[in-house]
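Kindly inspect this today.
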Amino acid sequence: MKRHNTITRTSVDARTQLRRLGARAKKGLGQHFLVDRGVLSKIVSAAELTPHDTVIEVGPGLGILTQELVKSAGRVIAVELDPDLAESLQDKLSDSPQLTVLNADILEIDPSELVNNSAYKVVANLPYYIAAPILRHFLEARLKPALMVVMAQKEVAQSIVAGPGDMSILGISVQLYGKPHIVDYVPAESFYPKPKVDSAIVRIDVYSELAVDVTDTAGFFDIVKAGFSTPRKQIRNSLAIGLDMTPPNVSELLEKAKIDPRRRPETLSLEDWARLSQIFIKPKTEKCRGMVAMPKD
């Protein structure tokens, strides 16, 4: 009961802040504002912030999490797409010299430019509709964060941390670059307005090097996407369709990778995908070279 009362009190505060701005939560931007202060403390604790840390926060919204971040980090860069909320946040926390608020689309910014090529962490309550692109934006950046602590939809979080048997493109995309784990689950009642699904706090400890031996990341993900191109099919058939190859040729390459052609894509490990990419990329490259070398009529 006490937890319920806390959520109700802070939810009213979120409504009041929006009313003062003459604004509403925008569904198109996936705006669901975190209002449970108990959850806020779990996020900040998971980020292990110190006065020496620089933090990038994506989608600060009303600044409820931002207020906690500026108490612990040496510098906070809040990137907000909504111009009204960005202006409001700047005014609200004008007495926090360590805070920089940018009205911008994070997907159009190189993280290294925000932090002047220095180390940083990412802490954010991610909009549901764009969580995966944001994760990949940071993890594939030239200058990657040392750590990410993000709020995501529960099903997305479970997909990120899943192992062989439930692997997905998103899980592979994250696990290639870092080790994710779920810190805690967060009920829908912890947000205003209340979403239709629960959420989870995910911490990603980013590796200094890739988790497996991959020399061509673009080619690696081409193979992964091809492998998941046809749901519920065997890996042989999915790759044949996704790469425009014959099933016998695919089976031959799978045998070289020591992978049973009858397995399904979600059962493969990160190491399996790395072996596949090494074997499949070479024939693909040779095929392309042969096509280039062919004389024109």
